[in-house]
Amino acid sequence: MLRKDSIKAIALSLLLFAVLVGLWHAATVPSKPLATSAPDAEYAALMGKAEEKSNGFPSPSKVGQAFVHYLSDPFYDRGPNDKGIGIQLGYSLGRVALGFLLAVVVAVPLGFIVGMSPLMYRALDPFIQILKPISPLAWMPIALYTLRDSSVSGVFVIFICSLWPMLINTAFGVAGVRTDWINVARTLEVTPLRKALQVILPAAAPTILTGMRISMGIAWLVIIAAEMLVGSTGIGYFVWNEWNNLALPNVIVAVTLIGIVGMLLDLAFGRLQKLVTYAE
Amino acid sequence: MSPYYVAIEGLTKVYPSTDVPNPRVFEDLHFHIDKGEFVCIVGHSGCGKTTILNILAGLEKATAGVVIMDGSEVSGPSLDRGVVFQDHALMPWLSVRKNVCFAVKSRWPRWSADKIDTHSRQYLDMVGLGQALDKRPSELSGGMKQRVGIARAFAIQPKMLLLDEPFGALDALTRGNIQDQLLKIVQATHQTVFMITHDVDEAILLADKILLMSNGPNARIAEIVEVTMRRDRNRSTVHHDPQYYRIRNHLLDFLVNRSKTCAESAPGSVHDARHPPLVRPGIDGDWAPATATVLPLPIERDKSSRHLMHAANT
């Protein structure tokens, strides 16, 4: 029954995709060559656009060609302004991974402290509440001035935007560990470190992972913007560069790939979350 | 130094509150537990039974009074006192085996993994869970979970076992089976046990001594009932013992009729908190007429029996 439903859902998705591409195609059919004057035609020929006249938005076939072009050789490297799209994605993922890991290293232990001590919670709460709503990009000038390196600043921006959801969720998860389990650990005279790692951590793990999943989603949104702003590498820089070249098909390719990578990241964290979730 | 294995002296608990007056949950409790003795505590909700158990476990602090076990004061949780929690408190991310291993490793940190595993299996076999070692708690029935909790508490071989109404959430059939198992294990190991229960039959089946609590606030130990039946009882025959219904009627009379009045008549009465009356309804007969609503405390006879007990102890 469920299988049948999922087959239907997949079929419907494919149909919707086909309809959308069809509409797109219909809307971007090259308009018939107008009766242009001779000098215009000559000019067009000089510019290498004699055969067709674009009405702006690229057609699906153009975008398809761009896809084939970029995906057939994703990892070439011909100087700073001409790298394969795989390499660009790799740069972005690398920055996200680094910033995210730094945030894990800071947020999880700090979240433990905040979650276990009501005093620390109340002391740190104003800072968290003020720092949390700041757009990560607003940190960029401060980071650039202080760190004096655009790449490191990108990592810092990822770090700062990943920090808050993880910190808040870790604190929430740690504070919510059932007193029964804590009491079991107490009656067994479990050492504080063992209690933290073998009782509180697994008990709070699902909540912590939820925080990480949210952080990863935000980090992937922010890295594109950050690279558009200051990058010389990365998929965000690629998008900005292709926009400056007015190569819209390439932009569409990049945007689609950003979406797919984001989805894969979220799926991966969903899997991790399933691994640590327990049924009571 | 107290001559008893576990001595509870002057235990009082007040929860911090802004209410005026802020009544005590219970006050000035005195009782003792001998080595190998099974003590049940019976009383209505709100008389602080769980608080008493938590203080014995070291999980809560008393407002006044001390608990002395095996010559030293209880000042915090310890491996000397194993606790079976009301809703089992198993860690759901660990298998049954790992739950017990966790406790065993806490008790004997230097043991090899093999030894820990063998020891844990032995106790899981004892409660009849040898077949469910690698299941998660969520895959077990309520009764099985509670048996894991019991195995975990026994596995660390504590000096005293504390059971907080462990079978309260189970159906009658499951409850009976686990009671049988617990009875067998306790008879075999001579474990010292302190247990909370609402079930009068359970208390009679398992206990050597039943503490009857008057209603809270200001709850106190109204009586200590000695269960004078043979120690090697079992569930299928215990109710054929002529003493059984005498004890049972006495307990029910207390819970239905006298638990309220004990608290009210306390000031100025002859109730001596240091030596709550010790009664043996199984031997002395059912003195309480079933129709009476308010009964006088059986002072005279109880005093004499208490003196008897004191003579025996000294």
Structural overview:
The complex is a heterodimer of chains A (280) and B (314). Chain A has 280 residues and is mainly alpha-helical. Chain A has helices at residues 2-27, 38-46, 60-72, 85-116, 118-131, 140-147, 150-175, 179-187, 192-230, 235-244, 248-276. Chain A is elongated, with a radius of gyration of 25 Å. The model of chain A has no long low-confidence stretch (mean pLDDT 89). In chain B, helix 7 links the parallel strand 10 (221-226) and strand 11 (278-279). The interface between A and B is medium-sized, with 20 and 25 residues.
Task: List descriptors.
heterodimer; A: 280 residues; mainly alpha; MetI-like fold; 0% strand; elongated; B: 314 residues; alpha/beta; 4-stranded antiparallel sheet; 9 helices; 18% strand; globular; disordered C terminus
Number of helices of chain B: 9
Order of helices and strands of chain B: EEEHEEEHHHEHEHEEHEHH
Tally the beta strands of chain A. Answer: 0
Query: How much strand content do the residues of chain B show?
Result: 15-25%
Topology pattern of chain A, helix = H, strand = E: HHHHHHHHHHH
Terminal CA distance of chain A reads 28 Å
Strands of chain B, count: 11
Low-pLDDT parts of chain A are: none
Spatial order of the strands forming the largest sheet of chain B = 6-7-8-3-9-10-11
Give the helix/strand class of chain B.
alpha/beta
Low-pLDDT ranges of chain B: 288-314
The CATH topology label of the domain at 94-230 in chain A is MetI-like fold
Write a short abstract of this structure.
The complex is a heterodimer of chains A (280) and B (314). By secondary structure, chain A is mainly alpha-helical.
Mind sketching the topology for me?
The complex is a heterodimer of chains A (280) and B (314).
Chain A: H1 2-27, H2 38-46, H3 60-72, H4 85-116, H5 118-131, H6 140-147, H7 150-175, H8 179-187, H9 192-230, H10 235-244, H11 248-276
Chain B: E1 6-13, E2 26-33, E3 38-42, H1 49-57, E4 64-69, E5 72-73, E6 81-84, H2 96-107, H3 113-126, H4 142-155, E7 160-164, H5 172-189, E8 192-196, H6 200-206, E9 209-213, E10 221-226, H7 242-264, E11 278-279, H8 281-284, H9 299-313
Parallel strand pairs in B: 3-8, 3-9, 6-7, 7-8, 10-11
Antiparallel strand pairs in B: 1-2, 1-4, 4-5, 9-10
Helix pairs in contact in B: 2-3, 2-4, 3-4
